[in-house]
Design a protein that fits this description.
- The protein has a domain of about 110 residues.
- With about 400 residues, it is an all-alpha fold.
- The longest helix is centred in the middle third of the chain and has 42 residues.
- The termini are far apart.
- It is built from 16 helices and no strands.
- Its main location: membrane.
- One of its GO terms (biological process) is transmembrane transport.
- It is a multi-pass membrane protein.
- InterPro entries: AI-2E-like (IPR002549).
- Belongs to the autoinducer-2 exporter (AI-2E) (TC 2.A.86) family.
């Protein structure tokens, strides 16, 4: 019998050091999110807007002026959208305590109809006086902390958006210079430089195509959702259309969160006084719109070239969402597209692209994978040859029995 051999201590130490380095890198990325996130967002927006800068440069417009025009347009559209949504968001924020109270009252009435789930009553108090509800008391005590958290997150978002805008301008204005210097630092081997440049251009093309296509699709989804919410008499339909467009950038998890928000908004509005169908109608309408968009519109617009494995997309959204929150979940798919473009051009990373690439081709059976390759090829070749001979061989003429050949 073959003796069992333990791995060498040097191998164990090498893998242990690599694991510790990976864990340290993950926690470093999580703690340095204030610096890494603006850089990543600016890089992705540079990939999207760089073709427009190159087109303007070919027409004689300097890169600095074209970058300033694009960044100004982007910032102006963002500020206009925020200004249009500020008033509906402020209205919801002002009536949030009243809406929460109405929703809790409706929930209390529903809980009272179920034995064992209603609010407990004090034994020594008068009849009809319920005991304090822990859920209501918790919401009341945490309202001040929630307001402080929202204000702090808002200030952090403003600072990060300003840093991203400035960095985006400099990256667009010096994109050609930075790319040429990075290629110049590589060894003077034509194949290596061409591979690196081709990988960067492929990642830039795929990310640009994905972001532009998904942005147009989500804008259409937002318009349709706003129109449907207006028809269903949900307050502030424009706000819910904008939130639906933003949440649709997060695959799988974003639509689920949006459906929950619409159900909570229906519960806090006048729709909660009606039937169960009226209460759930905004959520059901949104889920129907999302089903049409995800199964018909997006595959037709994005195409099979950018199709990704759903399992890899979901794992990427979960990982980056855990690492950086909502911003990481939005950046999950562009980062996955960049990884796929790089792995397709690197021989060592090519197995990763097999797991990332989506395909409509059915998987082979496990029995065919366990069969020796030579046997499968031989059987296929023999079957093909026999079929070809049967089809292509001309039919032999039938023997003439009416005129027998005379004997010599």
């Amino acid at each position: 019998m073959r003796a069992f051999s333990l791995p060498r201590p040097t191998t164990v130490r090498r893998w242990a050091s690599r694991g510790l380095l990976l864990i340290a890198l993950l926690f470093l990325l999580r703690e340095a999110s204030s610096i890494v996130l603006p850089v990543l967002v600016a890089l992705i927006l540079t990939f999207v807007l760089a073709p427009a800068v190159r087109t303007m440069r070919h027409h004689g417009i300097p890169e600095g002026i074209s970058a300033a025009m694009l960044v100004t347009t982007l910032v102006g559209c963002s500020v206009l959208a925020l200004a249009l949504l500020a008033e509906p968001a402020a209205q919801w924020w002002q009536r949030a305590p009243e809406a929460v109270s109405q929703a809790l009252n409706r929930v209390d009435r529903w809980r009272a109809t179920i034995p064992g789930f209603g609010p407990e009553r004090r034994s020594g108090s008068r009849a009809g006086t319920p005991a304090p509800d822990p859920l209501r008391e918790k919401l009341t005590t945490e309202s001040v902390a929630l307001t402080a958290t929202v204000v702090g997150k808002g200030l952090h978002f403003v600072v990060s958006a300003a840093a991203t805008t400035v960095l985006l301008y400099f990256l667009l204005a010096s994109e050609h210079w930075v790319l040429s210097r990075c290629i110049e630092l590589l060894p003077a081997r034509t194949r290596l430089r061409a591979g690196v440049l081709g990988g960067l251009r492929a990642a830039q093309r795929d990310i640009s195509r994905y972001v532009v296509s998904v942005a147009l699709i989500n804008s259409g989804v937002g318009i349709v959702v706003a129109s449907v919410m207006w028809m269903l008499d949900l307050p502030n339909p424009g706000l819910w259309g904008a939130m639906a467009a933003l949440m649709n950038f997060i695959p799988y998890l974003g639509p689920l969160i949006m459906a929950g928000l619409l159900l909570a908004a229906s519960l806090a509005s006048s729709l909660g006084d009606g039937s169960v169908l009226a209460l759930c109608s905004p959520m059901l309408a949104y889920l129907l719109i999302h089903a049409v968009e995800a199964n018909a519109v997006t595959p037709m617009v994005v195409g099979k070239q950018l199709s990704m494995n759903p399992l890899s997309v979901l794992l990427s959204v979960m990982f980056w969402g855990w690492l950086w929150g909502m911003a990481g979940a939005v950046l999950a798919v562009p980062l996955l597209i960049c990884l796929k473009a790089i792995s397709q051009r690197n021989r060592l990373m090519r197995p990763i692209s097999v797991y990332l690439q989506g395909s409509d081709r059915p998987c082979p059976s496990l029995a065919s994978l366990l069969r020796p390759p030579g046997v499968a090829v031989a059987v296929t070749t023999i079957d093909t040859t026999i079929h070809t001979e049967v089809v292509q061989r001309p039919a032999e003429p039938a023997a003439d029995v009416s005129h027998p050949r005379s004997a010599p």
